[in-house]
Amino acid sequence: MDINQYMGMFLEESREHLQTLNNCLLDLENDPGSLTVLDEIFRSAHTIKGMSATMGFTTIAELTHEMENVLDLLRKGTLHADDDITDILFKCIDTLEQLVENVASNSDATIEIKPLITKLTAIARGEFSPAPAEKLPPAAVQQEAPARSVEAVNLDETELTVVKAARKQGLECYEVHVTLRTGCLLKSARAYMVMNVLEEIGEVIKSIPAVEELERENFDYTFQALVLTAADAEKLEYAVSSISEVEEVVVVSSDLQDTAKETVETPAVQPKSVTLSNMDKKAAVAEKSEKPPANDHNPAVDKKLKSGQSVRVDIDKLDSLLNLVGELVINKTRLEQIGLTHRLTELVETIEQMDRVTTDLQAVVMKVRMVPVGQVFNRFPRMVRDLSRELNKEVNLIIQGEETELDRTVIDEIGDPLVHLLRNSIDHGIEHPAERQAKGKNPVGEIRLIARHEGNNVIIMVEDDGKGMNADVIKQKAVDKGLITQAEADRLEPAEAIRLVFLPGFSTVETVTDVSGRGVGTDAVKTKIESLGGMVDVETKINGGSKFKIRLPLTLAIIQALLVKVCEEIYAIPLGSIDSTINITPRDIKTIQNQEVILLRGQIIPIVRLGNVLNVPDTCIHNQDELFVVIVHMGENRAGIIVDTLIGQQEIVIKSMGKLLAGIKVIAGATILGNGEVALILDVSALKQ
After folding, report:
1. Cα 51 from chain centroid (whole Å)
2. First-to-last CA distance in the chain?
3. Which one is predicted more confidently, 493 or 514?
4. How far, in Å, CA of 230 to CA of 237, rounded?
5. DSSP structural state of residue 200
6. Of the residues 172, 424, 457, 651, which is catalytic?
7. pLDDT (tens digit, 9 = 90+) per residue, 192-216?
8. d(CA 197, CA 99)
9. How far is Cα 332 from Cα 339, in angstroms, rounded to an integer?
10. In 181-295, which ranges are E strands?
11. Is pLDDT at 531 greater than 90 in this prediction?
């Protein structure tokens, strides 16, 4: 079998499970005794082990196997999740991430895991700095296997009645202890085969762990079942032993009545189990017979863990689908124009129906490409935890709006800018606890990562309650570094001075560290966000914190736009950037500091003559009595664009300009109109007089 065909799936699922491990370990730090969190951690670690073993990546499988041993003891309460243990588990996850990325890059670099395995083994044996809150002494670790004996089994009255009735009919109740071979890859499949064989010989009335736990592989390599049968013990042992990867089978006759009394009198620490009634048991076995588990991802379990079902689709296929829908939109527009030009009533009616279908199809395709920003946000709590510890600061990260959706192409690109902003907030913004207390603040700093919809845009904000930024200090630093002159600095308003932090090479720290000082953070953020068609701005208040605000388009493919004309040239302005359109006369235009402006509802709006900015040849006759102005917004600012004609609103498909024309700031792309002509799409944030 060629396993390379599964490499993409292995890498993607491994990264997802590693992210889950990171998130759950952070939760475990806050609630060390949470069984739900521990179960989730165990499932993810076990899944990675199974996948890596199947793919032949023995180093990953070996490390996750040792992690499982520790996690299993945490679930049983034998160990307590103190700081030492969680720190080592975090180091294991970091190492696993490196190993997975080495697989992705086909790297031969060697990553040493023996020190971690030694520590994990010591923890499992109770020899590694045991926490005082451990529930059992280290010796109990070696005594965990006997805890699963039948003496710890409780049967309810109904089940005891069934056993008594079966014995009156000549049936015997046997305890079947099964041990799988160490390293067995598909334990759930083997457990299913054992249960299936036992059901053919008799009736399984109980299993430890329960059927659901066996399906999820939430057990070591041993489990047991209680079977009512007319067959003898040798037949049961022979049938189960014939299954591959079963190492040992022990079948003993059970006296449940005495055991039940003994259990009531002397309760002991028992493994978690769930009792099934006969009807539930048969239903579970019947369900498994119809759909036996074939791998680590059991569909029945996945359905419980997820509210819906999903299918992995390559992003290139989605891009191709979107391009085809774009071609449909272009041709639909063309047909509309033909129908109106030739006044073909039947064609117009058909096109109206086609318009509804293509609109619905477009909406579905766009939703398929949309993914929640939580996929990016979820990686940051771990980063904030590690960086705050490194800088000896206390920081609380609050995430809001992680369900907000963005286009997949944007999601893949915004991770690095947000990393820069968060590191900037922790390093430059949040003060040390003693300094915060001296200012009357909570010693624990707070950073908020917020996402929300705003019109046709998504707003992402990184806020902190730190020391803020001083405009005068920033201006002086910019002058000292030669980024601006002293005369330019003197003319800057405080809000404009704060934006100097986006200049290449700007930094306020004196010495370069691993975290900051190289002057590439906020500059890289601005460059990346603008390349995505977005904008970034900053607000700050001394001792009140700072807020970086990113505005991103919802999608980069199909948008509503206003078509305008300058002489013979047609341009498209994205509708999401437009506030309104107005008519003015030349007398309404005033000049302030060599900048043309108009007064609109008490606000001064700068004017941009589109023909001058784009160097459009002035070959047409202008109506000097009336001017058309499109009022657009660029973040918090607004501007008016003077055009010759307003054509109307239209749905357009954004096409890239190609390498030859890439980098033209005023042009965001191009589109094909209904008549086959090409119109350029304007980037209003880059328009200047």
Report:
1. 21
2. 64
3. 493
4. 14
5. H
6. 424
7. 888 888 888 888 888 888 888 888 7
8. 39
9. 11
10. 203-208, 222-229, 246-253
11. no
Helix (H), strand (E), coil (C) string for 595-646? EEEEEECCEEEEEEEHHHHCCCCCCCCCCCCCEEEEEEEECCEEEEEEECEE
Strand order through the sheet with 457-464: 395-400, 445-454, 457-464, 545-553, 535-541
The per-type count for the chain, helices as H runs and strands as E runs, is 23, 22
Reduced 3-state DSSP string for 65-87: HHHHHHHHHHHHCCCCCCHHHHH
Is 444 within 8 Å of 471 (Cβ atoms)?
no
Return d(Cα 310, Cα 307) in angstroms, integer.
10
User: How far apart (Å, rounded) are the C-alpha atoms in residues 509 and 108?
Assistant: 38
Cβ 465 vs Cβ 445: under 8 Å? yes
Does the bond joining 209 to the residue before it have cis omega, within 30 degrees of 0?
Answer: yes
Please write the tens of the pLDDT for every residue from 330-366: 788 788 778 777 877 778 788 888 888 887 887 787 7
Q: Sheet of 203-208: strands edge to edge?
A: 203-208, 222-229, 172-180, 246-253
**Catalytic residue list contains 196:** no
Q: Which of the pair, 447 or 246, is modelled with greater confidence? A: 447
Q: Which residue has the tokens 């499932």?
A: 43
Read off the pLDDT band of 54 (50, 70, 90): confident
Q: How far is CA 402 from CA 36, 422, 517, in A?
A: 22, 16, 30
- Reading the block at residue 543, the tokens are 């001792």
507/529 Cα distance (integer angstroms) = 20
Q: What is the pLDDT of residues 228-242, one digit of tens each?
A: 888 888 888 888 887
Indicate which residue of 68, 159, 217, 405 is catalytic.
68
Q: Are β-strands 667-672 and 645-653 bridged in parallel, bridged antiparallel, or unpaired?
A: unpaired
Name the residue with tokens 């606890």.
433
Least confident window among 504-508, 538-542, 557-561: 504-508
**pTM of the predicted protein model:** 0.55
Catalytic residue among 46, 177, 420, 428: 46
Q: Does residue 608 contact residue 597 with C-beta atoms inside 8 Å?
A: no
Is residue 420 flagged as an active site residue? Answer: no
Question: How many whole angstroms from its chain centre is CA 638?
Answer: 34
In 181-286, DSSP assigns E strands to: 203-208, 222-229, 246-253
Q: Is 46 a catalytic residue?
A: yes
Structure confidence by residue, pLDDT tens digits, 124-140: 887 765 444 333 343 33
**Cα–Cα distance measured from residue 16 to residue 37, given in angstroms and rounded to the nearest whole number:** 16
Residues sharing a CB contact under 8 Å with residue 32, sequence separation 6 or more, in sequence order: 80, 81, 82
